[in-house]
Specification:
Blueprint (H helix, E strand, L loop, with lengths): L5 H6 L7 E4 L6 E5 L5 E9 L2 E9 L5 H16 L5 H10 L3 H16 L2 H19 L9 H10 L4 H20 L27 H14 L4 H13 L3 H5 L6 E2 L4 E4 L7 E4 L2 H9 L23 H10 L9 H12 L4 H8 L4 H4 L3 H4 L1 H27 L1
Antiparallel strand pairs: 1-2, 2-3, 3-4, 5-6, 6-7
Amino acid sequence: MPKLTKRTVEALETRAKNYIAFDAELPGFGVRVMPSGKRFFLVQYRRHGRTRRIMIGQFGPVTAEIARQKAMALLGQAKGGGDDPAFTRDALRQSTTMEQLGARFLKEHVAIRCKPTTQREYQRSIDLFLNPFFGTQRVRSVTAADIAELHGSLAHIPYQANRTLGVLSKMMSLAEVWGLRDRHTNPCEEVERYPEHKRERFLSQKEVEALGRALADAEAECMYAVAAFRLLLLTGCRLGEIQTLRWEHVHLAEGELRLPDSKTGAKVVHLGTAAINVLRSIPVADENPFVIVGTKPGTHLTDLQRPWRRVRDKANLKQVRIHDLRHTFASGGLAVGEGLSMIGKLLGHTQVQTTARYAHLAATPVKMAADKIAERLASALLIATGESGGR
């Protein structure tokens, strides 16, 4: 058989049974000719006394030149004492798929170690972004280039792209622990996340007054939702903490909410008089343990977004989120002179860095005081100048 080229491969005859024609110049490089006329490039070599074959690809989609280069690499690996390429291929075929990894991740890690909200977020990332992209691709075969392609495909939603990358990175780290990938091969570490700019929307005093009027108007229509919004603003709690608050966790005599679980674990929320008054005004529903009563018996209110949109539109607070009520509570504390440490305690932050995002607001009261002093002194200076000029 002469050298395998496009012309010589096309000239090979078809037979009743498939056969292999080997290249004259590169031992082990060959092409299998099928009775149907299809031709497939391959390499054949011996390793530990066994004959091994690896398919390279079908002639046509794969040219003879490309097949020859691939064959040289595989034969060099096989004869150079490295990993057996056939063994690597077999291991890859038998390895876990990305879909299987995602299912195991949700069952053995997320369901046990993550809170319900986080569980839903991880499930969403896997169902909407990871499984459609990777599908049955093997975990071992995922590269940084694959990750970069996925991340790039979500460039129009950069925050979601970063969240999805974070979920995938955790999956790959666990894949190493579970023996599905080699150690220290997490391909996500090489992909740079998109820049994120934290939203810092705080309601001004006039905006809070407008919100108050809108809440009063909506109280007859959605009493429990209105109570939830008032409590969020007056306590600085997270949405889930108020939404799922039970009466057994409310201790009005001590002025506390004793939450057995939150984003940062168990915590005590100290209540001001206004928040206590709101809680006292909420009627307790029969056989319902929740403060913010839902539409179904024994449940809490699950949809606060729709009533919030109606309230904020009435108050002309476009684009203001429910979470911005928590920010407003923090800014209010700083406005009355409380330090970042105290604000962090009230918000339930476990890390100083989390509260530090409000640091620029801490200077606002100081600037206001400096401005008042400077204005008074400036007026005195003008008066003194005027008197001096008259003399």
